[in-house]
Amino acid sequence: MRALKPSRLGTMVKKRKVVSRTWIGALVTVLGLSAPRTFAQQPPEAPAQEIVANLAAGRVVIAVVKDAILIATVENPIEAGTSPPTPVPLGSVRAGVILGSVDWFSPSSQQDLARLDAELPHLRTRLVADTPHLAGTQGGAEATDIEATGQGLFERLNAVAKGLHGKVDVPPDEPLAELIIADYLPGYGPEVWQVKYEMKQVQQRRDYWDTRVLRPTYLQFWPPEKGQPRTLLEFDYPPENQSTTLLALLRNKDPRLERMRSSDAKIAQLADIFLAGDSNKVLAADATQLLRAALDATAPPRARETMAVIRQESGFEWLVPPPRESQKPTQPQAPQPTETERPAEAPSLLKPPAPR
What we know:
The longest helix is centred in the middle third of the chain and has 18 residues, at 144-161. This protein has a domain at 11-244 and 305-317: Glutamine Phosphoribosylpyrophosphate, subunit 1, domain 1, CATH 3.60.20. The protein is an alpha+beta fold and 356 residues long. The protein has six helices and 18 strands. The strands form four sheets. Strands 1, 3, 4, 7, 8, 9, 10, 11 and 14 form a nine-stranded mixed sheet that branches.
């Protein structure tokens, strides 16, 4: 494994015991962006600009198998504007998936502010001299490969979030965004990392807040510790809407997956191998068959899915490409309503919707 030392770029954490999670939920968060005299709580002289941050929300499932890394994602479309988490190639043998606030734009000015998944391949930064070093017997190089992308996304996300001057209410355990990275490292093998980006606000005066994104936290999930199972990795967003993981559903004989297992003896055998923690014995073609069947059986209605494979010899390839995107909502040419004129049920982090 890659042994890491801390740096001021963020917190680097050795692999922890894998806690597989599923995620449900998708939100459209409407955040107020305004000058100091223009607040959501007060009718301004001119309409305040809005920032809409559409979320990539749902589940990311990664299977590191004998001859490849499989990355599957499924959306849970409980709100309009949600997008499925989408793998983004970051090189021939590396891919990243952004969860959380991914698509930032202003509906009032029709201006795209940031599309982080599209920008991700170019969001790399030159690292400072005190980067964490890899001291393991297999790695032996600086951790610039993961950090360069993680720090680049941090800088871009922070640049957008600095414009938020209204109070933003998010659950304490919910990061603004997450980045899942899967790759093959020469001389080391397959690895999977989770990079978390949390947000902090400081009140400057009554209704004016400074917003910044905190340095990212890096968590390594693959390879597992010696003696730990080699099986599915599952990541979810938002974290407060977790549902049961695929492994738990298989272990507890969920009726949807039991029907899948009973209809195909090979699928049943593959499921048993993953439950036993021996995913390194499974070929990518077989694992693809199992994952597609399991996700199709358990995905929410109308959920969009993607799937990609990374092979060490041939690189990144789509198995289920992302769906075509719907057009962003447009604003009428008539004068825009102020924040106080928005419908009470409209989703907003400045004014959370009332419990149903």
